[in-house]
Each structure stands twice: as C-alpha cells, then as structure tokens.
Amino acid sequence: MHKLIASFPVSLLIFIALAACAPKFDWRDVHDGISPYTVLMPAKPSMLSREIQIGVQSVTMHMTASQIDRVKFAAGAANMGDPTVAQMTLAVIKTTLIDNMAGHITQDKSSVMQINGKTVLVDEFEADRTAPSGAAVHMLGRLIASGSWVFQMLVVGPEDELNREAADTFLTSFKPV
Q1: CB-based contacts of 95: which residues, under 8 Å, 6+ apart?
Q2: Integer Cα distance of 143 and 97 in angstroms
Q3: pTM, whole model, 2 decimals?
Q4: SS3 letters for the chain?
Q5: What is the pLDDT of residue 18?
Q6: Is residue 76 over pLDDT 70?
Q7: 23 pLDDT tier (thresholds 50, 70, 90)
Q8: Average pLDDT over residues 69-82
Q9: Which of 34, 69, 122, 153 is 20 to 30 Å from the Cα of 14, by its Cα?
Q10: 170 φ, ψ (degrees, to nearest 5)
Q11: Do the beta carbons of residue 42 and residue 73 sit within 8 Å?
Q12: Beta bridge partner(s), residue 141
C-alpha cells in the first residue's frame, strides 16, 4: 500500500505530461449529412439548421461549428434554388456578416476556381473590429457558390489567438461533393 501511495504523484505527473502533449487541433473530416460538402474541423463540431433571410429569400442554413480556445470555426450551407441566385447571394452574405460583427473589410478577393472537379465562385475576405473591451477581433471568410448552393467558411476570434495555419487548413479543406 505504501508503495502505491508513493508512486501516485509520479503517475499523476506522467498523466499531466501526456495530457500536455495532446494536440490542440484534433482534425476530422466532417459532413453535415444534408449539404453537399466536406470540410476538416479542428474539434468535434456542433450542428444546427435554422431558417434565415438572405436578401429577399428565406432559406434553411445548415451550420457546423467547433471552437478551439476563443476561436470559432464555422461552415454553413444553404440551397438558393438557382445557380445564378447563389452567385449573386455571395455579396449579400458578406455584407451581412461584416455588418453583424460591426467590422470593416481589410482584404477582399473574388475568383473562379476548380475545387474537387467543380467550377466554383469564391469570395475570400478578412475583416476586423474592436470589441468593447478593446480587443481586436478578426474574421477570415471564404464564401463559395457551387451550383445552387452557397457555402460560408468562417474563422472568428481574437487576433492574438488566431492560428493562421489552422485557419488556412480549415478554409482550404472545403470540398463540394
């Protein structure tokens, strides 16, 4: 018994050391089961769907999100019913996201890309705002129109906690299926 008690602190130290070595980002391939995409999420995500207004159209937005410390990673998808409407909707979504965070765009780039064999319209942007506490909040966004679907990939958190490599892994892992 005395030997067990004496070894307990050593066992505890080993456990703490192993826990400290656990990866912060536990990447996993995620599909919400409804929307036609896959994405790598840095932790076990939560999923929800809700009706939202995009422009004049009411649609169901399917959201998948996870959080590492105070940084949120979110993927959203909505079927706009028409490819032309989906493409035109990207600007509306971006404006709404920026307005909702009370921020301003610091970088913006639109392009046509091939992702997973599909031609898609991509709008990439970065935005900042200063929180009431004075902390800088940063948003990295990638909006994608593929067929009649619109997708939003967002990384949002305090500027000093945002891991650019992890954000890039998440944002570029999106694949329409």
Answers
A1: none
A2: 11
A3: 0.85
A4: CHHHHHHHHHHHHHHHHHHHCCCCCCCEEECCCCCCEEEEECCCCEEEEEEEEECCEEEEEEEEEEEECCEEEEEEEEECCCHHHHHHHHHHHHHHHHHHHCCEEEEEEEEEEEECCEEEEEEEEEEEEECCCCCEEEEEEEEEEECCEEEEEEEEEEHHHCCHHHHHHHHHHCEEC
A5: 36
A6: yes
A7: low
A8: 97
A9: 69
A10: -65, -55
A11: yes
A12: 125, 154
Structure tokens at 50: 């809700």
Interatomic CA distance for residues 163 and 3, integer angstroms: 45
Q: Tell which residue, 177, 170, 136, 143, has the closest CA to residue 39.
A: 170
Which domains are seen in the chain, by residue range? 24-176 (3.40.1000.10)
Cα distances from 58 to residues 28, 63, 73, 86, in angstroms, run: 31, 15, 24, 13
CA angle, corner 87, sides to 59 and 62, nearest 5?
30
Residue 135 structure tokens: 């902390």
Q: How many C-beta neighbours within 10 Å does residue 67 have? A: 15
Instruction: Write out pLDDT tens, residues 140-173.
Output: 999 999 999 999 999 999 999 999 999 999 999 9
